[in-house]
């Protein structure tokens, strides 16, 4: 039960902040180019700090403590970030807040996977319940109009509801004793802890995440400003998360039974992302809705296969760090690159060019995942 609660509270906290990042900068009057640059800065922090904190967590065996501390620092830093009108303060607070906030996902995933001993089917169910919590929060936001997308103070209030609940929930977790390693235990990180195929797999995942940066970091303004959805934009994010919920469970079971390998799921997800980005080029809300339903493949299936691959190829003592490499280097780094250049593309060429050009990256991922399948599916640990 504690794993379900951890997953649900983590994802509800993500829902209170993640969909609004671009809008928060836009509410401050920043251009798409400046917003994209600042999002990229936030992603840089989400690369560096999780790597440091998860390394300490692996070394000390204190995942529970790290989750609580990251939650506390996230609460503290959210006030200057959302409310300050001083640009230097906003930049510093944005960097630090996103660093601590985006430690929550890999720490929670590492804790859950360690408890489950890498069982992808059970993980899929638990993570799906987290997604259900994410969906529920977004639907409540869309129906009630709280938080209001035009008011950063309103967004802050929603964060103050969920983050304290996560901290309280994490305080009840029972940390398991780690098996100490005889070699390398004084190190914070060693490349030898992970096989070559792990780095190749995450490199292919990273290609898809450049394309996914459109969805995760640059689509909110498109929905509110171009499609005129207003505060109901979160309902369309929730729509994608609903399909994510079912894909987490379905692909988790298929992976556990050996019907679909993690590499095959990665290929399917990349194909789905190519289609999703191309669908955004079709005018009208119906095509946009269809594109949103593909979120089940472009995030749900992808996240499941990356988590499963990590569990099957990484020593359990390094689950925190393995999941952080996935989140930091295979997710946040490419999304940083995508957001940085994407903002300039929007300002100078518009969203259609953004959608078309970024579809190239998941297409490359499809080709590489097929060509390198034998290497990626080498002998497991």
Task: Tell me what you see in this structure.
By secondary structure, this protein is mainly α. The chain starts with a helix and ends in a 5-residue tail after the last helix. Helix content is 78%, strand content 0%. The relative contact order is 0.17. It is built from 18 helices and no strands. The longest helix has 31 residues. The mean pLDDT is 91.
Overview features:
381 residues; mainly alpha
Topology of helices and strands:
Layout: H1 2-15, H2 21-27, H3 32-60, H4 63-83, H5 87-101, H6 104-116, H7 120-144, H8 152-170, H9 196-217, H10 219-226, H11 233-256, H12 262-279, H13 285-293, H14 295-313, H15 319-349, H16 351-358, H17 360-371, H18 373-376
Beta fraction: under 5%
Low-confidence stretches: none
Task: Estimate the mean pLDDT confidence.
Answer: 91
Q: Which of globular, elongated, flat, extended, rod-shaped describes the shape?
A: globular
Gyration radius over CA: 19 Å
Please give the alpha-carbon distance between the first and last residues: 29 Å
> Given the structure, what is the number of helices?
18
The profile of the biggest β sheet is: none
Helix content: over 70%
What's the short story on this structure?
By secondary structure, this protein is mostly helical. It is built from 18 helices and no strands. The model has no long low-confidence stretch (mean pLDDT 91).
